[in-house]
Every structure is written in structure tokens, then in C-alpha cells.
Design goal:
Ribosomal Protein S8, Chain: A, domain 1, 4-stranded mixed beta sheet, 4 strands, about 180 residues, alpha+beta
Amino acid sequence: MDFGEILEAWERQTARAWGKRRKADAGQGAVRQGPASPKPPLEKQQQKEHPLNEWLKVHEVYDKDVLLDAQRERPWERRHRLLHTRADAVIDLHGLTRDEAWDALELFFLSSRRRGFEKLLVVHGKGNHSGSESVLKYLVKTFIETCPFAGESGHAHASDGGTGVTWVLLKDQRSP
């Protein structure tokens, strides 16, 4: 017996059962208004919402995590947006010694994070007046690598200073 035959047998059996019920109801003198209605389709049964969810809607209680996730920008969207926007703050390290520059960077990054800034520019120069290598450029690179909330970084476009300027994206404060 295949599935089609089973289905047909079941339909015949339920049709007979419905016919017997209608005859029994008519014989007892039951008053009906219209034909007997079967159970609602399974789709309508599944559409009924859980009582707890109905209560939450009535009392206007919302799941804060769902709202935060819906409002939160995806990481790649945030990165794309930040790469194409101007920096929130700029610091110029020209004329500072290594120690002075390090301290200035610490204060600059801490205050920028507290203010909620997302993109920073660090002007360190190309090192034309240094002996062999750019002292401040190397210092900035080292600082960014050790700073816990400094994210992606790179050099600015040639029109904005080229290799003499480094941009830094601060990590999202809301992410764990």
C-alpha cells in the first residue's frame, strides 16, 4: 500500500465519521446554525501566539537585547563608514621628543575614547629631519600596536599628508 492509497482511505474514513456525526446531531433534534465546522486548519492553530508573548505586548515590555541588536551596526558596515569619513580628532606630534609624544598619545587616545570618537589622525611627519629613520613614525606604530582600544590603522592619502599621517579606528566600545 503506497502513501496515496493510505491518504484516500483516511479521507473516506473521516468523511464517513462526519456523516455519522451529522446524522446523530440531526436525530437528537439539535439546533444548528449552519453546517458543522471542523477544527481550524493547522496554520491557524500555529498562528495563535504564546500567552506570555501576548502579555508582554499588552504590558509593553520589550526584549532590550533584540532592540540593541537591531540598532547595532554590523562591523563591516562600521568599518566601511569610518574609512570614508573624516577623523573626529587630530593630534600633531611635530617637535616633541619620544617621551613627550608617547605621553601626548596616551592622553589623546584616552580622552578620544571617553568622548566616543571613532576615527583619529596622528600627524607625526615623514622623518625628513631625522637621521636614518622617522623616530615619531616608528613610535606611533609601536603605540598603536600596544594600545588596547586602537583598532585598524593606516596612512592617509597623499593629499592629506601621505606617510606623514596615520589614521586609527578605535574599537567599538559596545562590543565585548
